[in-house]
Amino acid sequence: MKVLVSGRLPEAVIRSIAAEHEVEVNSNDYPMERSEILARLPDKQGFLCMITDSVDAELLDHAPQLKMIANYGVGYNNIDLAAATARGIPVSNTPGVLTDATADAAFALMLACARRVVEGDRRTRQGRFKHWAPLHFLGTEVSGKTLGIVGLGRIGRAVCRRAAGFGMRVLYHSRHRLPAEDEADLSVTHAGLHELLAEADFVSLHVPLTEHTRHLIGAGELRRMKPTAYLINTARGPVVDEKALVQALREGRIAGAGLDVYENEPDLAPGLAERENTVLLPHIGSATIETRTRMAELAAENLLAGLRGQRPPNCLNCQQIYGS
Ligand code: DGY
Prior knowledge:
This protein is an alpha/beta fold. About 35% of the residues lie in helices and about 15% in strands. Helix 1 (about 10-20) packs parallel to helix 12. The longest helix is centred in the last third of the chain and has 19 residues, at about 290-305. It is globular, with a radius of gyration of 21 Å. Bound molecules: (2R)-2,3-dihydroxypropanoic acid.
């Protein structure tokens, strides 16, 4: 069969696909242009796509032979799952393998914001570290503070486990409350979103992007946060109303923000880059050699299983495609 891989992946992974199929790969590190994807898909049975590819009904109409879509990423808001399901195409993602890397990134942002790491680095390089002084460059402590986790899936839980090491009190908000036993195991307390926002010193977002979570954090929610609190987003940009965030940062209504994702990636909302009280990363939450390799392997495993007519290990629409 024929496969399109729209992003550059480790050679060994491409070889594992090429052992069974004819593969076309994007050989550079830029996202493949949509027009190119549309031109290449018509004769393909397999598509290993990137989170930057919008796999919508129009694209699927250009791919009448498609039998399997394997997303390179756990978040799959880039894929119209209903449209793929309606065409009988299984879709998979890469859960689990990026949990720790993403939780580490959330913590890195938290620490960088609280201890002004990036600002300090900038100053030092500019030759502006002239002397040590007791009240110089003060940040805020992370240890012992209250962390509010919004979305307690795999990554939210991994952030909880890290927070325990910092002696933090953890509040969580999620659609489904955990059984009391699990709350005790994780040392977390359930809270309504408003209560969490009002109490947390750090609010870390770990929800997928859906119609329910788009702009979950807007002007009203930012207003509920403490002026000393930080917002951390390693989930998806549109979960936060970025314009409202810039306004809140500008007016000092919150202390700062650590962001890995943006509403209109790779563009930033006007004014965001100018704020000193932000740490801004280029969507690298899962970007470790180990994790990105494992993601590629898992995406390939899913793709190959689907093309063999087997259930992909991480199928998102299996129920509808294969039955129970
Ligand atoms: C994902 O897997 O959804 C991440 O955003 C990619 O790093």
